[in-house]
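User: Modeling request: complex.
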Amino acid sequence: MFATIRSIEAILVDIPTIRPHQLAMTTMGVQTMVIVRIKDSEGLEGLGEATTIGGLAYGQESPESVKLTIEAYFKPQLVGRPADNINTLRVMLNRSTRGNNLARSAIETALLDLQGKRLNRPVSDLLGGALHQHIPVLWTLASGDTARDIDEALSLLVQKRHCDFKLKIGSRRVMDDVRHVAAIKEAVGEQASVRVDVNQAWDEMTATKGMAELQAAGIDLVEQPTPMKDLGALVRLSRKFHIPILADESIADAKDMFALAAAGFAGAVAMKIAKAGGPTRALEQATVAQAAGIGLYGGTLLEGTIGTVAALHAWSTLETLHWGTEMFGPLLMKDDIVTKPLNFYDNGVDLPAGPGLGVEIDEDKLAEYRRKNQ
Ligand code: MUC
Ligand code: MG
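Assistant: Request completed. Predicted assembly structure:
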C-alpha cells in the first residue's frame, strides 16, 4: 500500500533583507516566502517553497495568492491521493487548474522532497543524477548607490565568495544607468564578469542605445531589456549586438522557449523553477533551449534556502550552465528558517547531501518569522 497525502500547509514567512534591494520596478526591504509542508500517511514530510519579488511587482502571482491557490484549489485535490507518482498528481492539477506556476513549483518541490525521503535518495537522483556538486553563483549589486555597490563587489572578490556580478538597472535614465554600470565595471576590471538586468524597463529604441553603450563598457550580458511580450524586440536586439541577451520574464516554460527560439532569438535563457512550474518543468525548458543552441543560466526569484536548494538539484543535472547561476537568495536575507544554512564559497555553493532536498526546518525560526494572523 502506497503512502497517501495526509495534509498540506502553506505558510507565509517574512524575512528582512540585509540591505535595500533596488530593481527597476520596486525596492525590496523584506522577502516573503510561501513555505509548503506536505505530510504523508507514513509520517514523512516534504518541503517546498514559492517566492516572488515585491508582491505583484514581478509577475501575476503574489505570496498571498500562492497561499490561497494552494489551500483553496490544490489541497482539496491532492489530500488522500497516493503521494508516490508525481506525474499523475501534476497532470491532474494541470487538467483542472490554469496558470499559477509559482504555486505549482512549490507543490512539485514538496512532492519531490517527500519522494526522495521515502526512497532515501537526493532529489537530484530523482531528476537523473547530479553532474556537479559545486554550482557557480553570482551576486547581484542593487543597493541603489554606485560607491556602495563597488565596495560590496570588491569585498566579495577578496573573500572569493563571488566573481560574477549582476546589476539591476532600468529605474533611472538610460545614461545615468550606463555611467553607474561603467563605473562598477571599471572598479572590478577583468577579474569579474559584470552583467545587467533591466527587468523590461526599456522600449526597443532605448534598448538599442543602452545596449550599444553597455557593449562599449565591457558588459557581458543584458537581461530582459524590453517588455516580456515583445518577443520581436528581443529577437531583433539579439541579432543587432554581439553582447548577448538573457531572456527572463519573456520565457516561463518549454513552450515559451520554443516560440522565442523559432522566432530567431540567439542568446541565453534564465530558467527559474518558479516560472516553469517546478524543477522538472524547468529541465524540460532546458532541453528545448539546448536543442536550439540557446545558453543556460540558473535563475532565481530570490528564494530562501528551500527553494534555492530545489533549483540547485535541478541545475546540478545539467552538463553545461553557460552563464552559471544566481542562486544567492538566502544570502540576501538577514536570517534563515533551516537548521543548516548553505555554505557559499569559492564563487559557488555545494549541493546539499542527504535524502530529498537535504534541508530541515528550524521550527523556532519558522515560528519567529511566520506572518501573524495569516
Ligand atoms: C530577476 O529579475 O532576475 C534575480 C536576481 C535578483 O536580484 O533579482 C532577481 C529577479
Ligand atoms: Mg531578471
